[in-house]
Design goal:
This protein has 416 residues and is of the alpha/beta class. Helix content is 47%, strand content 19%. The chain binds zinc ion.
């Protein structure tokens, strides 16, 4: 059996001595301790006080398990009376190893924080018998809430991105990211995507840092573009990510594909329609991933739908333009040619995309000079998508995003 001094070393807690150890019927290791420190700091005047005034209420603090036993430290904190303050208030002694607001020792809190890496609040809650609310309380205390602007040397590339917290529409948050010295950082998670919210945040960037912004990578949401232009003025390039533009023109093809599939399902025999197996997945694949068999299925479908064949070819042509190492001027000429092709084509599915292209011509063509900078937002998006899949159904998604996902999954988070 280990003796008390060895147990004390195992606990790793300073400033205490062990009175007795019990194992309850439920297998909980209860370690009753007392403080070996003397004195406190008067909570009113701040003076050091040493006039003992009994003991406070018994506290039970969960600690890291010992030999797989749930371990609780039981302590009655010392209290002291202040002789200087006029009504002699009493103050409870504070010890370094626990926060008076918490039901856990700091060591246990830190082990929970480590357990949260790549896990959800619910996962960790179940495993360690801690409520999600308690975990959130820990995150509140440990994850800093303000941006330390002085930690940022410069902000050459900013990213603005909206993310849907729940499936369907509405409930968006905005992720403000930055590439700081080649590592991706999250500057803020804004509670909604209103232009005013984005603008208000961008205005909190201190002036010297604001002057270092060169490019803002964003999607084609006019609220973001408007906010960035209002705050940074003309000398900052606004760049529409390829990722966001591609989503728009691919969605146009998708819509047409659905219409055409409905039409063919109605018009063709069941056997004939059956030969288009999985065509919806094939259409979404990038060209290099399409197998020979899939090409044959697609070709059969296109034979029945010349419109979709044309839309697909146009979409592919646009992707090809994006893949070319073009200057901004060259890209403008190529895109102009593509727009003429679309206007002369039979398909009408790109009409609203053409409007977007004209309205955001500069932002979209800026991509070709800022290609290198723009990639990081796309990387972030993909990462978030993967992470998000795991967390549907959790109550407080917004907070989860801000803290657990982004912070603990390897991004530096400067703010909530
Ligand atoms: Zn005092």
């Amino acid at each position: 059996m280990i003796d008390q001094s060895q147990l004390l070393r195992l606990l790793g807690l300073p400033q205490i001595a062990i009175d007795r150890v019990e194992i309850t019927d439920a297998g909980v290791l209860e370690i009753h301790v007392h403080s070996t420190e003397d004195g406190a700091q008067c909570h009113r005047c701040g003076r050091r006080i040493t006039e003992a005034h009994g003991l406070g209420q018994e506290r039970r603090l969960r600690h890291v398990p010992i030999f797989e036993h749930r371990t609780e430290i039981v302590i009655r904190p010392k209290r002291y009376r202040c002789p200087s303050c006029h009504d002699h208030p009493t103050t409870t002694q504070r010890l370094d190893w626990y926060d008076p607001r918490s039901a856990f020792t700091r060591a246990f809190e830190q082990s929970l924080l480590r357990a949260l890496i790549n896990s959800t609040l619910e996962d960790v809650g179940h495993k360690d018998a801690v409520t999600p609310e308690q975990l959130e309380g820990i995150l509140d205390r440990y994850v800093p809430s303000g941006i330390d602007w002085t930690a940022l040397p410069a902000l050459p590339v900013l990213g603005l991105d909206e993310i849907a917290l729940t499936k369907g529409h509405g409930n968006f948050v905005v992720i403000v990211s930055a590439r700081v010295e080649d590592s991706l950082s999250i500057l803020a998670v804004l509670k909604d995507r209103k232009r005013a919210s984005v603008e208000a945040f961008l205005r909190t960037i201190p002036k010297p840092l604001k002057r270092t912004v060169r490019v803002v990578c964003t999607d084609l949401y006019s609220g973001f573009i408007g906010a960035a232009k209002a705050v940074f003025g003309k000398h900052v390039a606004i760049c529409a990510d390829r990722f966001h533009v591609a989503r728009l023109y691919r969605d146009a093809v998708e819509t047409l594909r659905k219409q055409e599939q409905r039409r063919l399902k109605r018009d063709l025999s069941k056997a004939e329609y059956g030969t288009f197996k999985n065509v919806q997945w094939i259409m979404r694949k990038s060209e290099s991933d399409v197998s020979a068999e899939e090409r044959r299925i697609r070709a059969r479908f296109f034979a029945h739908s010349p419109k979709l064949a044309q839309a697909h070819a146009l979409s592919q042509a646009l992707t090809d333009i994006y893949d070319m190492p073009l200057s901004k001027g060259q890209a403008k000429r190529k895109l102009g040619g593509w727009m003429r092709r679309v206007k002369n084509a039979e398909v009408t599915c790109f009409q609203s995309f053409l409007k977007t292209l004209r309205r955001h011509w500069e932002e979209i063509t800026n991509y070709f000079t800022e290609r290198r900078n723009s990639g990081f937002v796309e990387g972030l998006n993909n990462k978030i998508k993967v992470l998000k899949r795991r967390c549907y159904g959790l109550s407080n998604l917004r907070r989860l995003y801000q803290r657990v996902y982004l912070d603990l999954c390897g991004y530096r988070v400067f703010a909530r």
